[in-house]
Write a structure and sequence with these properties.
Blueprint lengths: L15 E2 L4 E2 L189 E8 L2 E8 L2
Antiparallel strand pairs: 1-2, 3-4
């Protein structure tokens, strides 16, 4: 149930608002159909699912939609957050936080802050592009910043971790053979493959040339190359 407080909504004739919340028994349109139009309900809407002892429901809010569009783009959830003041404020358009509360233990569980999935029950063909997660720095005005990146992986873990601990964990649990773990299209506009900064634990001052060696396979412009790796 959506509780509406501290503002007076604009009411259309095809839905009703009472002191408890929105109630309807038939399809309603709660906003204009165009993407950039103003909402009919103006103000803040807060949804809390915190009954005594915690909720045992599967979700706090569920949005499902079927798109019959044959072209263009359909947005399952469209969210824009605009910063309209100069200063040191930070904004997050979408924030996912998953917390195991103090006093509770998650065993053999999966705790994920944000989860993205793309699935083709039908057919994806031609020049289509399919990705579970997409991070974009859109063409912007001039930017002066310490770092600008399409994806930022960070860890604030302070206590020791029993088990494998890393910033990036990649798996292939599907039956299909993958061509590469990472594909980089630089367009001749990327200066270096990577920069290593404050990595004394990863980089040694002396190169290894002896011991047993293995080669790491990479493909450059469609041609297979190898990087040699040596044991100490």
């Amino acid at each position: 149930m959506i509780n509406i407080e501290n503002y007076q909504p604009e009411i259309e004739t095809n839905y009703a608002v009472n002191s408890v919340g929105l109630a309807t028994n038939y399809p309603v349109q709660l906003g204009p159909v165009d993407k950039t139009g103003n909402n009919i309900i103006k103000g803040s809407i807060k949804i809390d699912v915190r009954p005594t002892g915690g909720s045992t429901s599967d979700y706090a809010e569920q949005i499902r939609a079927n798109s019959a569009k044959a072209s263009g783009t359909f947005l399952g959830l469209d969210n824009e957050t605009h910063l309209v003041a100069s200063g040191s404020a930070s904004i997050m358009s979408t924030r996912g936080v998953a917390v195991v509360d103090t006093g509770y233990t998650a065993t053999a569980s999966t705790v994920i802050g944000t989860y993205g999935q793309a699935r083709a029950d039908g057919t994806v063909a031609g020049s289509s592009f399919m990705s579970g997660l997409y991070g974009l720095i859109e063409a912007s005005a001039a930017i002066t910043a310490s770092h600008v990146c399409s994806a930022w992986l960070d860890s604030h873990q302070a206590n020791a971790v029993t088990g494998s601990h890393q910033l990036l964990y990649m798996t292939n649990n599907g039956a299909a053979q993958m061509d590469e773990a990472i594909y980089v299209y630089g367009g001749d506009k990327i200066t270096s493959l990577m920069e290593l900064n404050t990595v004394s634990g990863m980089v040694s001052a002396t190169a290894e040339t002896g011991g047993s060696s293995k080669k790491i396979k990479i493909t450059i412009d469609g041609v297979v190359h190898y990087i040699n790796a040596y044991t100490g």
